[in-house]
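Reader question, answered in our methods column.
A reader sent in the components of a multi-part assembly and asked whether the whole thing could be modeled at once rather than chain by chain. We filled in our standard form and ran it. Here is what they sent:
COMPLEX SIZE: three components
ENTRIES:
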Amino acid sequence: MHAAAISMNYDHPACRAVLRQVRQQAPFVYGLTNYVAAALSANVLLAAGAAPAIGAAPGWPAGFGGQAGAIWVNAAGLINCTAQDMLDAVRAANAAGVPWVLDPVAMGAGIGEYDAIIRDLARQGPAVIRGNASEVMALAGGAATARGVETTASIAQAVPMGQDLARNKQVIVAISGPEDHILGPDGRHLVVPGGHRLLTVVTGAGCALGGLVAAALAVTPEEPDRLVAVAAIHALYARAAEIAARSAGGPASFATGFVDVLAHLQDTDSSDGIR
Amino acid sequence: MHAAAISMNYDHPACRAVLRQVRQQAPFVYGLTNYVAAALSANVLLAAGAAPAIGAAPGWPAGFGGQAGAIWVNAAGLINCTAQDMLDAVRAANAAGVPWVLDPVAMGAGIGEYDAIIRDLARQGPAVIRGNASEVMALAGGAATARGVETTASIAQAVPMGQDLARNKQVIVAISGPEDHILGPDGRHLVVPGGHRLLTVVTGAGCALGGLVAAALAVTPEEPDRLVAVAAIHALYARAAEIAARSAGGPASFATGFVDVLAHLQDTDSSDGIR
Amino acid sequence: MHAAAISMNYDHPACRAVLRQVRQQAPFVYGLTNYVAAALSANVLLAAGAAPAIGAAPGWPAGFGGQAGAIWVNAAGLINCTAQDMLDAVRAANAAGVPWVLDPVAMGAGIGEYDAIIRDLARQGPAVIRGNASEVMALAGGAATARGVETTASIAQAVPMGQDLARNKQVIVAISGPEDHILGPDGRHLVVPGGHRLLTVVTGAGCALGGLVAAALAVTPEEPDRLVAVAAIHALYARAAEIAARSAGGPASFATGFVDVLAHLQDTDSSDGIR
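And here is the structure of the entire assembly that came back:
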């Protein structure tokens, strides 16, 4: 762990507070994401109590971008919508004061044309950038270290660059890995330990986390509270993974159990909500 | 329940008759639907014994639209195909006498450009329009009450407008909700009680129902029988949900169990087919 | 079984060898496939230890096509990318010496425009063509016998035409059916018995097999070894299906169990790796 970092897990009261707000407010969360991860992302959001809609039907990006409580833009969504759709959505969000998450999937895999689109999106003012080590490093201006959608870089390498990115772009940067690091534009640094290796063999698990982070933004209007809210979502994700792994027979039953657990995590007490 | 409405559940012999026909004939059912719901929709159709194909590859809409036993057009499919693809499919269907289902997903969410496409599709002569309360009300000319893909209107508000829509467009209108209402162009009104709340937290469950309604149309050539066949599919869906909910640990295991149960529902006796 | 055919199942040491190589090398496997099958395909590849990426984001086909260890092109991917994307990917693959799999989904269903694209792809030099009986027969120049994405032809009809195809195009042809036939350009003929009927009621199960075959190519550099490697993947798939079927309650729990089993199949001993 890094010197000034503060550790935070699901036992932190902020996790229950965020979950309670999501379940009470059922925020409309709009996503431009990829078809590989879309169904899991929607199911994760529904399990947490949010109301997701996904995709760039005619008029949706500009319309839902401004109507939603928050939006998330998953760069791999470019396999099924255009860069213009994404720009339309984030501009509508910005105009309406709707916070949004940018997930720079596969950034830094050596595809210049693709990376340039993400770099342009990152200039539009996301509230949160969420990715793995390679993606965050690439977006911070580092070398290309991704292999397809996977990282080959370590969290230790990514954190200092993520801190620069957070400060330079005045954005919360969340880096997923064996432990997750949530970095504030003001230098705050939260670390979320735990989670489970099985999350890395379920396609779209990271993408779905981006959607859930958007749900947290939707119920957290004050900017200073958002760093903790983003960390809370990561802690909730980690705990749900740990619980689901206990009874999983492999990655597919783990994914099923993970969504089931998310639906049962309690917002009112300190138990894990599993009977 | 409404005055002239007749209640119908899975114990009605029409449910077994429709299921038996689908399993015997294995109708080719072609769908233009969205990538969030596509896999579940295909799996639901396969579980019921139908032979689905999904999507607008070059030549498929005009080709499969006329070859299939029935087709379903899910408006949110506009996230991955064009309005022209949908028009090609329904015109080919019409030319070949193939019945089709229109599912006006997210109609009435305030996106004029999108709603206009659905209104145009509704003018092409669907056999069935299937949606939630907000969607049916919007298509009937009512106010916009949808929030993304979710309804904020009640069934009670939607039924009278659905009845007008059925009469004016000479179409069967099926409204999904805590109880489902199936409305005929001739004023017939069937109500399907039951189902389970968990269906609302599985993404694409409503969309998949649209595909299954198409399968019912494919095996029900006579128009007067179709109202009952559509209600039968809703009753089958409701019963499968009730059975699956008994052993579900949450929404994801519910979805798994739901498809398993659909595959086991018997067409030959009055048991629920579960050993 | 055919005269010169050699039977091969998961007990053959080649199966463990291929699985061990995939788990050790974790090859980057890039796919252009359809959104119905995409998530299952990615999960199957992850379960086997490979590193998949899917879809045609800007720059990906030409970039990932050359970077990957192998690629697979599923013709039904034309529902969400262009023929040009597919050509870009396979040309990049060819230029870099990356082997690729062509899966001619729905070939021979009577859609001339669509079939012509697949025929053009088949001329670009795939290492393997993998499909069902109708698809292989259509690609070999036979009559159209597919119904949507389903075959209506028998393996017995398809094998002689597949053998011609293998010889004429100097390609390995793998035909899936009640037993799978793997046909070499040199006349070798392997038969993989077993598997399970439930594989045919899980959408995308055949498509995912195409991705797994690509993973096998990625870890099998020598052409003469590839025929056995392709058969090994089919044998692994069949065994995983048989094991998963034992405890499945229907097609959805079967699909979950199938991916779980794939993740547990051992590469080091002759047991089936299930505790």
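What stands out: Chain B touches chain C through 35 residues (CB under 8 Å). The radius of gyration of chain B is 17 Å.
Send us your own complexes using the same form.
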